[in-house]
Each structure stands twice: as structure tokens, then as C-alpha cells.
Amino acid sequence: MATRLERAVLVGVDLEARSRRSHAAAVSEFDARLRPHPTSAATADEESNREPPESQFRGGLVRAAAGCGGPGNASADLNAEESLAEFRELAASAGGEVVAELIQRRARLDPATLIGAGKVEEIAGVAASAQADLVLFDHDLSPTQLRNLEAALPCRVLDRTQLILDIFARHARTREGQLQVELAQLEYLLPRLAGRGKAMSQLGGGIGTRGPGETQLETDRRKIQRRIDHLKDELEAVRRVRRQQRQRRESVPVPTVALVGYTNAGKSTLFNTLTGAQVLASSKMFATLDPKLRAIELPSRRKVLLSDTVGFIRNLPHTLVTSFRATLEEVGQAEVLLHVRDAASIYGAEQKAQVDRVLGELEVQDKPRIEVLNKIDLLSAEERLGLASREEIAVSALAGEGIAALLEAIDAALRSDPVIEAEFRVPQSEGAVLAAMEGGMVVRSRQYEGNFVRLRVSGPASLVGRMRSYRVRDAVGTAETLEN
Fold this sequence. Notes:
The chain is an alpha/beta fold. It has helices at residues 16-32, 40-49, 80-93, 117-129, 143-152, 160-171, 175-189, 212-250, 267-275, 318-323, 325-333, 348-361, 381-387, 403-413, 431-440, 461-466; strands at 7-15, 97-106, 134-137, 156-159, 256-261, 292-297, 303-308, 336-342, 369-374, 393-394, 419-427, 442-449, 452-460, 471-474. The chain is built from 16 helices and 14 strands.
């Protein structure tokens, strides 16, 4: 018997002045890419239609969202409709069935309920008539706001961070990922314990009036804090193991290239195309939580390790950034970053800015970076012509377009173990040496001289150095003498 999907009401809240300003910025960015700007409703429909139909509302969790455009809000750079379109994808990724949507515009946010008492009453009526299970706000709610909304609405209330944490919990497969998600959840819950449910309510406010509710609250806080400390110890052990693994990798000169980017930009699909791996590539947000490493060969025959990492999102909750620091350390150790962007998204500039913010928090914004525009198969011929003059590498990970150019760009960006040209004279009887050269270098020319083979090659300096006993001369014409 199929599990009933929980029902949700999506509620958007926007500060009017910021909404007009951000909408104009979105239009300007899209026009610059030679693509007509759709209305907000059309934008939502287009984004929805790009998802496989069967992936829209799978799972057992439904969320209702309220997107706000004020300071500190996760949707600060988009208007209410645009923010709601993205948050609808988050709800779908959590397995949600959206049953109603409302939008409220305010001059300022209400410190008690975020949206105002009148709007709370309206949402309560809509939620009751639609038999909604949840109302979720695309904004971080303060403990006071959360308590007030839970008391006034006939169903559960979740905010943006709680929804993202729920999606992370659903997609965590490894022990490390589960530890990181649990740590983020507990760190978010700890300051919000007070007043959550009758078992934790205070019975009085004066001396001698504190009842078992306060005792239970303090007990729960101590238990959660002990669990947080334990999780941090376990994750530190994970970091030590990762450091040891990196040290072993560093003993062999194999550089790492990390895929980074906004969630659902197609990083995992690109990872699969480049490596031939079969990691989960889903249209749902945050499908990848655990880093994955695979070796790939570049046109120069150099080997590199490609790392697939968790996607970023606007105002990624700080608890997630800190909890997933062990995972994101792979980004810090990478020599080159591949910033994968959705070429078909009308919010490309804003998404790029959000990724830059997270990379800045990780202190890796100065690393060599290759900008990769993915999903060009979703663009029209005119739009693709507009990309030809840009510096980014345009690819379609799904169709395999542009992959050769991307590999060449990675080759050019690497600085460790540089590619050099050299000439060797190897006895034909040294089959293993010849095989190693042909397997690890690009052979530019080959000549047979009696029992010897003269090879002109380009390859990694480390491999050329290991073969120095057979080297005749380098590519710039030093004296032709055998170093043997």
C-alpha cells in the first residue's frame, strides 16, 4: 500500500522594495545571455517541466514554504515568486505535495510571527481547508517566531534550514554523512528546545514555581550537548582518516580536481561522464552528500583524481557548512576547482555569487578555477551561439558535448607535475619501458634505429624523470648525448 504524501502550503513573503530591485536584476542577467525573460509563473513552469515527471513528488514528506526577501533571508536576492520557484524544488526533493501557495508583501518583517497576525490567520484557514500537514518558511525562524507560529497554525511548522536538513538526512548513505547531518540537526535544535511541547513548558516564573518542565528542558539540553560532543569526536576521527588518506595520495604525484557548484547544476552527471562511474545523478536537490573520488586520464596522459562534492545553495545554513567541513576539506586540498553552473538557469549570476560566498567561507576562493556551463542541450541554437564568445567551457554532461574541451582546459590549468617534451632512445628489448612510455606519455614521433627505438614524447615531468637513463635530449635542443 502506497504511503500517503504529506500535504503542504507554500507561502511567499517579500519586502516590496527589494522584490522590485531583485526582479530587475534577474531580467538584466537573463537578457545579457540572449534569452527572453519569462514571467515568474512561466519561470516556475519551465523549471518544473525540466524535471522528470516521476521525480517531482516522490517520498513521504511534504513541506510548505514561505519565501521572504528581507535581510538575513535565504531568498534575499530574488523576489517572492522567483524564490518560491526554487523552494518548490526543495519541497519536491523532500517528497512534497504542494496543495496551496500564498504570497504576502510587507514593508518589514514581523518579529513575532515574521508575516503578521492577519496573514497567520489566513494561512491557518487555508491549511485547515486543504488538510495540510506542514507549513514551512523559506527563512530561518527565531525560537520565538517558531513557537508563536506552531501555536497559531493547525499543523507543524518548519523553516528553510529544517527542510534542507531533512533533505540531507534523507540522502545521507554513509556513516560519515549520517554523523554530519545529525550534528547539524542537533546544533540547530539546541537553542530551540524551550517551549516545544507541553513536556518542556515552564509551570511558573518565580522562585519555587519551576516545575518538571524546566527540569526536563535542562536534562534534554545536557543530553543533546553530550551527543554533540560525541559526534564532533567521531567526525574528528573521520578527518584524521581523511588526512592519512591524503598523505598516502600525496606520496604519488596525482593532483585532485574538485567539482563544486550550486545544487542540481549537474555535477554528478558530469562526474559520471568524465569517470565512467555510476554515482547517483538525480534531478532532486542535494542528491550527493558524500564525496566521491575517481581517477581520470587527461589528454596529456596525466592522471588526476576527480572529486564530486555536495552542492551549495543560497545562504547554505552555517550549521551545514561547519558539520560538513570534513567532507568539504576535499575542496580545500584540490589543485583546481571545476565550478559547474546551469547554463539554462535564469538565476545564473545569483547562483554563482552564492557559490563564491561558500568558497570564501572555506577560504579557497583564490584557487585556480574553471567555469563550466552545463546543460547547454537545454538551450536554443541562438542561445548557444551567444555562449561561443564567453570564456566559460560550455558542455552538456548528459549528451557528452564539450567534454574534450573541458579535459584540455583541466590539463592547461594544472601546475603540479607539468607536461614537458623529451626524446628517448630505448632498446627494443626493453618492452616494459616502452609500454610505460606509451601508456603514460603522448608519443609525437617514433623512429626505429637498428635495435633501438627513438621516441619524441610529451608527458608528466615525474614520468620523464624516471626514464632519464634513456633520454637523448629535451625539446629545446640540448646536446644529443645519452645520459646512460
